[in-house]
Amino acid sequence: MPNISNRAQQMPASPVRKLVPFALQAKQRGTKVYHLNIGQPDIETPETALNALKNIDLKVLEYALSEGNIEYRKALTEYYHSLDFTDLTPDNFIVTNGGSEALNFAISTLCDDGDEVIIPEPYYANYNGFTSAFNVNVVAVPSTIDTGFALPPIEEFEKKITAKTRAIVICNPGNPTGYLYTREELQQLADIALKYDIVIISDEVYREYVYDGKQQISMFAFPELAENCIIIDSESKRYSMCGVRIGCLITRSKKIHDAAMLFAQARLSPVLLGQIAATAAHQNDGAYIRAVREEYTHRRNVLVDLLNAIPGVICPKPKGAFYCVAELPVDDTEKFAQWLLEKYTLNNETIMVAPAGGFYSNPELGKKQVRIAYVLKEEDLRKSVAILQDSLEKYKLEFNL
């Protein structure tokens, strides 16, 4: 038998995908499953992007430049100029195979074995995978549902900083919570990064989707962080293009950029066809984003209002992204989520949710919480919440809760 590395054995399972076998079995039994568990938008990809792929006239699908082709990096530069970051040039961008690879580059550029990154939790579960792969330790700072998952007191971050701390990772607006950080909260993070000369890695892939007249504030809005900031971006959620696998790492720091480029060169190139589609997507005039934002706003309002009408359910209203975290009146959402797929149906339908324990370093903190993605149409969201309400009643009866 081949030897399996300790690194592979220690890689955490995805809390979003590990219930997939149970969902497949439910579907094989003829049960309709509403997927609330994964952030795969149902919104149509821009026609400009699809047409660009249909109309490719290349004779050879060659390697792209390791840093990304200049046409796409120019499109990114123009986009960031529209956000008032007019100092950026194509040389500030490294195009990656999704935001995930950008995060991998950031972690591997900054951290050695045994180093630490601080992350407010709950956090995007794959951060665990990215750090585990490089033997980097996550040091979590818990936020709470009572505050809507606001940034924990900055003193709690400062207590966690050690000689091994290399970065603070945030997601703004957040996955899984949908929390949108305020300028004051971000300024506190900027101040502490400068005080201890650590880097802020700001995952901003949901930037466009903020609600209630709010505006996402990028960490690039703090010019004092020029040498201490990495932005992670992606086209996956902006333009409903998860399958093209195009993201980018952006930094004003030449030192960080040049180091990250070594990893970019080692993996040869980002996806050529994805860059063609993404370049075309950026030709849209903004109407696409506005329409999608309006749709997500409506879905959020419907979903959160219905959830909070269920006895015992607590769900803060997110200000961004397309997720919410809800606390349910159950003993264990891992058990509940599996039960939904194995034992329960309503009119031969059920739902799939993401237990929130996998979004915490200490799973007990999320034991009664689930993440729900509002990437379904209103009618399906309403059906899903009706299923949830009925299932909670039956689950409590079955387990004497």
- Poorly predicted tracts of residues: none
Radius of gyration: 21 Å
The fraction of residues assigned to DSSP E strands is: 5-15%
Number of helical regions: 13
Number of strands: 12
Structural class: alpha/beta
CATH class of the largest domain: Alpha Beta
How far apart, in Å, are the first and last alpha carbons? 46 Å
CATH topology of the largest domain: Aspartate Aminotransferase, domain 2
CATH superfamily of the largest domain: Type I PLP-dependent aspartate aminotransferase-like (Major domain)
Structurally, the number of domains stands at 2
Features:
401 residues, Aspartate Aminotransferase, domain 1, Aspartate Aminotransferase, domain 2, 2 domains, 7-stranded mixed beta sheet, 12 strands, L-aspartate:2-oxoglutarate aminotransferase activity, pyridoxal phosphate binding, AspAT/PAT-like, Aminotransferase_I/II_large
Q: What would you say this structure looks like, in words?
A:
The strands form 3 sheets. The chain has a 7-stranded mixed beta sheet, with helices on both faces. It has a 3-stranded antiparallel beta sheet with strand order 9-12-11. The chain is α/β, with parallel strands linked by helices and 401 residues long. The longest helix is centred in the last third of the chain and has 22 residues. Strand 3, helix 6 and strand 4 form a beta-alpha-beta unit. The termini are far apart. The protein is globular and about 60 Å long. InterPro entries: Aminotransferase_I/II_large, AspAT/PAT-like, PyrdxlP-dep_Trfase, PyrdxlP-dep_Trfase_major, PyrdxlP-dep_Trfase_small. Keywords: Aminotransferase, Pyridoxal phosphate, Transferase.
